[in-house]
Amino acid sequence: MDYNGKAIAEHHEGAVPTTEQTHVNLNSNVSGKIANPLAGIPKAELLRQVERFAEEQNMTDIAPLLQKGALVAQNPPAFEEIAELEEFEREALRNETLHKWRQPRALYYTIVMCSLGAAVQGWDQTGSNGANLSFPKEFGIAAPVGSPNHDRDNWIVGLVNAAPYIASAFCGCWLSDPLNFYFGRRGTIFFSAIFCLLSVIGCAFTQNWVELFICRLLLGIGMGSKASTVPIFAAENSPAAIRGGLVMSWQMWTAFGIFLGFCANLALYSVGPLAWRLELGSAFLPALPLAIGVYFCPESPRWYMKKNRYREAFKSLCRLRNTELQAARDLYYIHVQLIEEQAIIGKSNYVTRFIQLFTIPRVRRATLASFTVMIAQQMCGINIIAFYSSTIFVEAGASSKSALLASWGFGLVNFLFAIPAIRTIDSFGRRSLLLFTFPQMAWTLLAAGLCFLIPGSSAAHLGLVALFIFLFAAFYSPGEGPVPFTYSAEVFPLSHREVGMSWAVSTCLFWAAVLSLTFPRMLSAFGTTGSFIFYAGLNVCAFCLIFCFVPETKQRTLEELDYVFAVPTGKHVHYQFTKALPYFIRRWVFFDKSAQLEPLYHFDATLATNQDKAREEYELESRTTGKY
């Protein structure tokens, strides 16, 4: 069965003759050039091509609008010179630079629904955090230290906690590709929400650890397919200039869901024997409105285009953009970029697409980069705290209630410090945030671990442990927190986006399962200090991997990223060590202000470079005058 968008392949021949000037090899972009496939086409020829496109798609009634959109897409900074545009259309295009957050309600509603999906994810993660203090005793798997069953029970508790991530990594994530093919982004999210709704209610009624394990496996099916789809849905519906800020809502609201889970754990602590059941079952609350509300969102226009349903794609874009001109521009520009993609991808099915993640050079580089940022999220150690913070604070000498209160503080810090990333992820960039925050996470985790060596269990002892754990969360939240899911949703071509995101999320959740399964045993074997030092070292390793293998993606359309990932990995690594690293040392170690960094990528002037400059100048002037 052919899962690829047949329309793209069918329209490839003769659709857009790419000029020699703009052609770039999307498997080996040695020059680092990022081109506009419409550049260099004479106006009359471009209009004829758009007219043919409109006829093929039965959209001749809006052919003049599509032609205007193509003229804008051909040279975005020069829209003021296009005589065919109305003044209100020019004003809308100016506002893309000057007021980029002025977007339609439908776009923000979509992001709200995606945020609900993220909140479900976070709440599901932390329900077990408080329950870990109770359910092992009730199910007879809490043998004390020295007991013959102590090690066995540690592994069972870890297995129950890891169950959703095991199911996600081996089933839920990989279901997202066929689910998206048949039911679209919205249908897949609905499917996921139902699993997340019913399974957590089932968890609350289990009578032994085996039943709890099975219910949490079912939860993992929903979590995996949701985590693989929601960031894609947000990324495909968002304009390039603010895509990072909108897609990172996944992490921010996952952090909020984690915080709400900690709130529920703290509020339900005094209920008694039923507390852990209510803590696990309470995660149904955000899943219910998600299941109801997702079908009021516009479907992804790129999904419609992949299914050769261009008319519906245009209607969806009209809901997601401020004017029909912007919708027509994006429709045609995405179309011609998809033709460029198809030239290197060809037709494929589910199995061959998975194989192509590792065989097609452009796709393989995206696979490596997404793998790096996803495994780094587990290497950094955030989830040993998200899953086991209550246990960790008890180890530091806190009472059960104080441990839940400290965990609540961790959840609050995790959420609050994710908010700045809405702005910084599209200004500083994904790569820069990662390279800044990983060293900070390493030393804070190391300091937290060493604080466990302080004799006694005084308030100061507990306070220092909590302080460094909170600092760790504060550095994690604007960096490694929002970047992995945002980044992985961006980097794959449309033809491989679902299976690529499945690969990325399964990587993340598989290692979350490994972490959840092994941490109780690691605590027993290494102690809290040894465990924290181990993860501090992994932060350093993750920093090195990111430095070598993760390109920047900020403020480029999803299709323009084909050119970024066409740059050979060897060239990227060589640039980082021979250009970027010496520049950093000269500029920030020796404070040499004359140091200049030669760019790796060379953007065509027609790719909104001038818009970026205009935006920077406007924001600088606005901050100076106080009218920003």
From TrEMBL:
Stored Pfam families:
Sugar_tr (PF00083)
Of the GO CC terms on this record, one is: membrane
UniProt keyword Transmembrane helix, yes or no? yes
Which key words tag this protein in UniProt? Membrane, Transmembrane, Transmembrane helix, Transport
Q: Name one GO molecular function term.
A: transmembrane transporter activity
User: What region holds the Major facilitator superfamily (MFS) profile domain?
Assistant: 110-554
User: Which domain of life does the protein's organism represent?
Assistant: Eukaryota
* Family, as annotated: Belongs to the major facilitator superfamily. Sugar transporter (TC 2.A.1.1) family.
Q: What is this protein called?
A: Major facilitator superfamily (MFS) profile domain-containing protein
Species the sequence originates in: Saitoella complicata (strain BCRC 22490 / CBS 7301 / JCM 7358 / NBRC 10748 / NRRL Y-17804)
Its organism's taxonomic lineage begins at: Eukaryota, Fungi, Dikarya, Ascomycota, Taphrinomycotina
